[in-house]
Amino acid sequence: MSFSYALGIIDVAWGEDRDVYADWGRRVPVAFRINQLGAYLLGLSGSYSAPDEPEAKIEGGFTMLPDYTIIVPDSSNRLTHELYFEKLFTKVSTTDEASIFKLDFETAVRAIGNGTSVADLRKYLSASDKPMPKNVASALDDWEKQAGRINLLNTPPRTWQGIARPLRSRLV
Question: Which of 9, 83, 109, 146 could serve as 4's disulfide partner, Cβ 3.0–4.6 Å?
Answer without folding.
Answer: 9
